[in-house]
Design a protein that fits this description.
- By secondary structure, this protein is α/β, with parallel strands linked by helices.
- The strands form 3 sheets. Strands 1, 2, 4, 5, 6, 7, 9 and 15 form an 8-stranded mixed sheet that branches.
- The longest helix is centred in the first third of the chain and has 13 residues.
- The N terminus is likely disordered.
């Protein structure tokens, strides 16, 4: 082969585009809602139970929760460990029934190697299941508890899938390791693409980031109502900028509607919201009071849905001290938008 031809081939090889591996997409995004009516089991619990019972030997499940107080789900977790699923469960407050009460004397299950209690863990409805390199997650504001008969709760959770997931799983697991003191890694933010050309971002707290404030600053107008539904809001270093920005958006013509839990600690912030022209409602039913478990913000802007779902209240403690997770979703997700709009209007 001539030297000239060799040189020509070298140029072709050098200039040929390199094959790059496609980035994983977040897909099958869906919203699940627990309401105070309806029988057991609640929709989010059913989703949890199905996911945990589908796990096979060698799969991994990571659960980050405020507490484990649901016998059906606690048994499902222990049964999954018995099948050879690798379980890591971290919680803050309560664990009933205990793992030790759910196993037989001849079981080889090491309860202390599954469930870990740590302070400041405030995650709610956080479960990640990884199988054959693919992940399924349920993330929201639902505590793993039995349905409360005298003080009903309303909650939401997002679920989604990620194929060939090395990115999100590593990000999620690193956070769990940090809570356990096994890692000092400080990566708290991750953004990924979604099906349909949208995007989703994850922010673990504690963090210097203020995802809700950043979320609102990126909105210059509202193409429809701007909905918020939260359990608790405080006019501190995290809450006040949010309230101030909402007031600015009202002046710019936004129809800001705030569903607020009827907690006595919210009385002060209610007056501040109303003084800025923000409409405030309590989500009570004809049967009486209920506890609002949502931590949501939703609006249409620039022909897209903008949604924030979090386990964090709008206060400094939730962002700077407690372990929480906030999600921001942008794109076209008509079923999620329709379902949440119906949920907000239900209590408005």
């Amino acid at each position: 082969m001539s030297k000239t031809l060799l040189c020509a081939l070298a140029v072709v090889v050098a200039c040929a585009p390199r094959q790059t591996q496609a980035q994983p997409l977040v897909s099958n995004i869906a919203i699940h809602i627990n309401r105070q009516d309806g029988g057991e089991p609640a929709p989010i619990q059913r989703r949890y139970e199905t996911l945990i019972r589908s796990a096979a030997k060698g799969d991994e499940i990571v659960l980050l929760q405020k507490y484990f107080r649901n016998e059906v789900l606690n048994r499902a977790i222990v049964d999954a460990e018995r099948r050879g699923v690798n379980i890591l469960a971290i919680y803050r407050d309560e664990f009933h029934p205990r793992c030790e009460d759910l196993i037989s004397p001849d079981d080889s299950i090491d309860c202390a190697g599954i469930f870990f209690r740590r302070e400041r863990v405030h995650h709610k409805s956080m479960v990640l299941h990884r199988s054959n390199g693919n992940s399924t997650a349920i993330i929201g504001s639902y505590n793993l508890r039995e349905r409360h008969a005298t003080s009903p709760r309303v909650h939401t959770a997002l679920s989604f899938d990620i194929e060939s997931d090395d990115l999100f799983f590593a990000f999620y697991k690193l956070h769990a390791d940090k809570i356990l003191g096994l890692s000092g890694a400080d990566r708290t933010h991750l953004q990924m693409a979604t099906e349909g050309g949208g995007s989703i971002s994850f922010t673990f707290h504690p963090s210097e980031r203020r995802p809700l404030t950043d979320f609102l600053q990126a909105i210059s107008r509202c193409d429809g109502p701007l909905w918020l539904s939260y359990y608790r809001v405080t006019a501190d270093a995290v809450g006040k900028p949010v309230v101030d920005r909402l007031g600015q958006l009202v002046k710019q013509g936004c129809d800001v509607r705030f569903l607020l839990d009827r907690d006595q600690d919210n009385h002060a912030i209610e007056q501040q919201l109303k003084s800025r022209g923000i409409a405030v409602h309590y989500p009570d039913e004809r049967d009486g009071k209920l506890t609002l478990g949502h931590k949501l913000l939703m609006v249409r802007f620039s022909q897209q849905l903008r949604l924030s779902q979090s386990s964090a209240n709008i206060n400094q403690e939730s962002h700077d001290r407690d372990y929480n997770l906030s999600i921001q979703l942008t794109g076209e997700f008509p079923e999620v938008e329709r379902t949440l709009e119906e949920e907000f209007l239900r209590y408005w």
